[in-house]
From TrEMBL:
Protein name per Swiss-Prot or TrEMBL: N,N-dimethylformamidase beta subunit-like C-terminal domain-containing protein
Location of the N,N-dimethylformamidase beta subunit-like C-terminal domain: 97-525
SUPFAM superfamilies, per database record: Class I glutamine amidotransferase-like
């Protein structure tokens, strides 16, 4: 066991700045770097096929810029470079997070027929007003050509969640500058804007959300990731979502381990579900919280027909809708019952609420075996900050653990801290020392619970005053109301104790394996041999290699 420090890391902030880092709303907006100048960009879509044309929309204080495009896998391959491209400063609407930036396209390029599927990083560089370079990073995905891909994995990047957390322009599905008082989160977010700072590239020492601190007794929680973001000029949400914090670690691991991996965005699941047909195994990783009805249809049908879905991800929480050909994502979330037109003469099954809202009739467990409303926080704030770190294993004889040497009662991935910061679970009971889903849990038939840890929907502590709680009981009250009609204390008590699980179940001719934790990828990033072994066991079985 690694020995953890007993003090929070220090990024040079004053106590007041530390409070600002956590409590205030800060975000990327044009002009934020002042005299130095800036360059920003976005592409017209998240994802392209070979030979398609990408429109790059650039706004810059400089009149020319340099462009490099690099495939970002276990090795980096530069595929395109060009200097001397003309740019200009473009006006940005105040509500750009919702409406899109509306910048003119500045440059177009064609995806080469020989560019392998994957994630491609765009680096823009120009001269700042002080003569020093200014940069912008963007990412787009190249999806595979249609056809059979024997032996290859299709990874679906959690782009719905990237979009939900993107702070660029001031509003996302969490915080925002919408509404009369400019203090509301955005119910709609646009793809037509740059990614916030830290979604595409991050330094190696950027903290993850789960605490790497042995928290002393009676400690008021601190949030190193937000303090680091504030201190270094990164997005407040850099550790909550994005390619750099999550999806990239699975792709790099899989390529390093010798797997052929293709990449798609969730837009492909929604608009071209036939993309799944070429694959024996489809993988979902990281923080994967926002899905449409159509995306679930695609996965359900694929597994029914004999496909294998491997989910190493947490927080399967919200239904979204896509509008404007996928350029706008809608999620009313906590305000859905009050504001979403789906409740006023629309199709209420498409309401942008939690999947477990009874009126939707489609709990998350029906697709991936676990529910976000029965899981949630672990390893940070006032939610199990001294919790398990890994998955407590109950069924070590399961095929997923072959070759790990793991025992009943061992904790999988504790050193690499794979358990947190949001996890998915089920209501369960222990019989004869083994966990089983309860009869009313909504678990699919034949579901086996391989591992279970504890999680919490609320921060409750006699030692932490309400003003120092970041999460409080808001999410727990919402879950109580969503599931049981009223956010009462009695209903809160029914939902506040959650769990995080690894489960496996058959469906039709296929199968689902689900390790329900955002942080599984931390085990791949930190090269935890046991976590790598379980991941390979799942991929090998689903690719027909074992
Ligand atoms: Fe989340």
């Amino acid at each position: 066991m690694t020995h953890l420090p007993t003090e929070f890391p220090d990024f040079g902030l004053t106590p007041q700045q530390r409070r600002q880092a956590v409590r205030t709303h800060y975000y990327e907006l044009p002009g934020m770097d002042g005299e130095r100048g800036e360059i920003w960009c976005y592409t017209d879509r998240f994802c392209y096929r070979p030979s398609e044309t990408v429109a790059l929309h650039v706004s810059a204080t400089a009149s020319i810029f340099r462009l490099a495009i690099t495939r970002d896998g276990c090795t980096e391959i530069k595929v395109f470079e060009k200097a001397g491209i003309a740019a200009r400063w473009q006006d940005t609407p105040d509500q750009c997070s919702v409406e899109g930036c509306g910048w003119d396209a500045s440059f177009e390029f064609r995806i080469g027929d020989d560019w392998p599927s994957g994630a491609y990083r765009i680096t823009l560089e120009a001269d700042g007003r002080d003569g020093k370079p200014i940069h912008c990073y963007h990412l787009f995905i190249v999806a595979p050509q249609p056809g059979k891909k024997p032996g290859r994995v299709l990874q679906v990047a959690a782009t719905g969640t990237w979009l939900a957390y993107n702070t660029w322009g001031g509003s996302n599905h969490y915080e925002g500058i919408t509404g009369a008082n400019r203090d509301q989160y955005a119910r709609m977010v646009s793809t037509q804007r740059p990614w916030c700072r830290g979604f595409v590239v991050l330094p190696k020492d950027a903290p993850r959300v789960p605490l790497e601190v042995a928290v002393p007794p009676k400690t008021v929680p601190r949030y190193p990731h937000m303090e680091w973001a504030f201190a270094t000029g990164h997005s407040k949400k850099y550790a909550s979502s994005g390619w750099a914090s999550y999806d990239s670690h699975f792709l790099r691991f899989a390529e390093r381990a010798g797997y052929g991996v293709d990449l798609a965005s969730q837009h492909e699941l929604h608009f071209s579900p036939e993309i799944l047909d070429g694959y024996d195994c489809v993988a979902f990783v990281g923080h994967d919280e926002y899905w449409t009805w159509e995306m679930r249809d695609a996965v359900d049908a694929y597994v029914e027909r004999g496909g294998y879905a491997a989910r190493f991800a947490g927080n399967f929480m919200w239904q979204t809708r896509l509008e404007d050909d996928g350029r706008r994502q809608v999620c009313y979330k906590y305000k859905a019952r009050a504001e979403d037109p789906a409740y006023r003469g629309g199709d209420v099954t498409r309401a942008t609420n939690s999947w477990e809202a009874p009126e939707i009739g489609r709990p998350g467990a029906a697709t991936f075996g676990l529910n976000a409303t029965r899981g949630v926080y672990a390893g940070w704030g006032g939610c199990a900050p001294r919790g398990v770190r890994g998955f407590p294993v109950y069924r070590p004889e399961h095929w997923a653990f072959t070759g790990t040497g793991i025992y009943y009662g061992d904790v999988l991935g504790a050193d690499s801290h794979i358990y947190g910061y949001e996890v998915d679970g089920l209501d369960f009971e222990i019989r004869g020392g083994l966990p089983y889903p309860t009869a009313t849990s909504g678990a699919p038939d034949g579901l086996q619970v391989l591992a279970v840890g504890m999680a919490s929907q609320v921060e409750e502590s006699a030692d932490v005053p309400l003003k120092d709680q970041f999460l409080g009981d808001e999410d727990g009250r919402f879950t109580a109301e969503t599931l049981f009609g009223e956010p009462s204390d009695a209903n809160l008590d029914k939902v506040k104790r959650g769990s995080g699980m690894i489960v496996n179940f058959p469906r039709g001719k296929g199968e689902v394996f689900h390790a329900g934790s955002c942080e599984w990828v931390a085990g791949l990033l930190r090269q935890d041999a046991m976590v790598e072994c379980v991941t390979k066991n799942v991929l090998d079985r689903y690719l027909g290699k074992s």
